[in-house]
Design brief:
The protein has 434 residues and is of the alpha/beta class. It has 19 helices and 14 strands. It has helices at residues 22-28, 48-55, 60-70, 98-116, 129-138, 157-164, 179-190, 193-198, 209-212, 216-226, 244-254, 271-278, 302-309, 319-329, 337-351, 357-368, 387-394, 402-408, 421-431, and strands spanning 2-5, 19-21, 37-39, 77-81, 84-88, 120-125, 144-151, 170-175, 201-202, 235-239, 261-266, 330-334, 375-379, 414-417. The strands form three sheets. A six-stranded mixed β-sheet has the order 4-5-13-10-11-12, sandwiched between helices. A five-stranded parallel β-sheet has the order 9-6-7-8-14, sandwiched between helices. The two termini are 30 Å apart. The model has no long low-confidence stretch (mean pLDDT 92). Pyridoxal-5'-phosphate binds at residues 96, 98, 129, 239-245, 293-294, 358, 380-381.
Length: 434
């Protein structure tokens, strides 16, 4: 299987679409000119493993082992009510669904590096969740060293512990600045020709195709638990920010999983519901909400979704037709802050079940959708990760799961740096692995 990158720099000077293999797409992350890698085709498959092995050029027994190691935690499907199911994706080490993609990507990268004997350095800036999933996902891998830049004092104490207590190949860099400083420092390092000449550098960006493909896993998993009497009738409800999770669901549908419909549930950062109504994609600055991992004003994976529906190639570029085709598969629903909090409270009262604010956006969308039949809401994070708002909605204390209890007892080992790039450079030059 080959992968191409979405425009602009996706063609050779002779006008042919440039293709790379999975290894190159994985290790590069972004295509030339900032495009996103897409599979050239979608072979049909009847289960997750048969699907993923078509995309990924790793020997079958090694790929099986990578999947087994990466997905080493349960994924329960909870029936809350008739036709309402919750798929708990938060039982991994950092308690969000991002563990699936980060753990798989780390192991796939390590596989290729071990073969070639190369070493790789990952530099990632984080405002919280992505950093912990990446740090935990790469922890202990022999050929990769990870530098996580995070804004000291601006992330929650528990989030900091998840990043800064690991040690070994994970270097926690506590920046005296905000998230934008971290991101700027990471970009400068990744673009630094002097560093690049000496070592292999990459980012663990969330738009890496190596994080998306493994996320098909739990769509197949959930479907298989419900199917028989329900096949062809199931709607998935996906709390969305950058739309990576939903893109993975569309990939699963393309490989043959007969999903009826997707509901994209978003918070007040509602660029996509507005686009599906008006046809105009108006990106803007993000606004802060309770479901902060979905505070995205410019959803990065939308380019992939558009590409999936741009069937007749880019010549006529019929935007209206593309939008109509997207609307056949995806309904987008916006949920307000008040509805989010109220839904956490109502679900607790009615079912004695506690959900996090991202999952609440999904459950609230179920009440507003036009779709009939069974719905599976993807529960993207454990409620304890968003303790303050959840406790205030359900009016009781909630306990920490073991993963969080364990880190809260460990001591922090970070390196504090200023926001001047020279300081980061001097540190990296001594610490990067060759
Ligand atoms: C990242 C994240 C999301 C959004 O996922 P996308 O793939 O960016 O749409 C939703 N919920 C939680 C808890 C997340 O961490």
């Amino acid at each position: 299987m080959k992968f191409y990158s979405t425009p602009p720099a996706h063609k050779t000077s002779e006008g042919k679409v440039k293709m790379v293999d999975f290894k190159a797409a994985l290790l590069r992350g972004l295509g030339e000119g900032g495009g996103l890698y897409m599979p050239e085709k979608f072979p049909k498959a009847s289960n997750f493993f048969d699907a993923i092995k078509e995309f990924i050029s790793i020997a079958e027994k090694d790929l099986k082992k990578i999947c087994k190691d990466a997905f080493n935690f349960p994924v329960p499907l909870v029936e809350l009510d008739k036709n309402l199911y919750i798929l708990e994706l938060f039982h991994g080490p950092t308690l969000s669904f991002k563990d699936f993609g980060a753990r798989f990507m780390a192991r796939a990268m390590n596989y290729y590096l071990a073969k070639s004997g190369e070493k790789l350095n990952i530099i990632v800036a984080t405002s919280g969740d992505t950093g912990s999933a990446v740090a935990s996902g790469f922890y202990g891998l022999s050929n990769i060293k990870v530098f996580v830049l995070y804004p000291g004092k601006r992330i929650s104490p528990l989030q900091e512990k998840q990043i800064a207590t690991l040690g070994k190949n994970i270097v926690a860099l506590e920046v005296k600045g905000d998230f934008d400083d971290c991101q700027r420092l990471a970009k400068e390092a990744l673009a630094d020709a002097e560093l690049r000449e000496k070592v292999n550098l990459s980012s663990a960006n969330s738009i890496n195709i190596g994080r998306l493909l493994p996320q098909m896993y739990y769509y197949f998993h959930a479907f298989n638990q419900l199917t028989n009497q329900l096949s062809n009738k199931i709607t998935f409800v996906v709390p969305s920010g950058n739309f990576g999770n939903l893109t993975a669901g569309l990939f699963a549908k393309k490989t043959g999983l007969p999903i009826k419909k997707f509901i994209a549930a978003v918070n007040k950062n509602s660029v996509i519901p507005e686009y599906l109504k008006s046809g105009k994609l108006k990106v803007r600055k993000s606004e802060m909400t309770y479901s902060n991992a979905m505070d995205v004003g410019r959803p990065s994976n939308w380019a992939r979704i558009r590409e999936l529906y741009d069937h007749d190639n880019d010549n006529d570029n019929d935007d209206d037709k593309i939008r109509k085709n997207i609307s056949k598969d995806i309904e987008a629903i916006k949920i307000t802050e008040a509805e989010t909090k109220k839904t956490i409270a109502e679900v607790y009262k009615k079912y004695n079940y506690i959900i996090d604010p991202h999952t609440a956006v999904g459950v609230a969308a179920v009440a507003l959708t036009r779709q009939s039949g069974p719905k599976i809401v993807l529960s993207t994070a454990h409620p304890a990760k968003f303790k303050e708002i959840v406790e205030s909605a359900v009016n009781r204390k909630i306990s920490l799961p073991n993963q969080l209890k364990e880190v809260s007892n460990k001591s922090k080992q970070s390196i504090i740096i200023g926001k001047n790039y020279k300081e980061l450079f001097n540190l990296l030059i001594n610490q990067l692995t060759k």
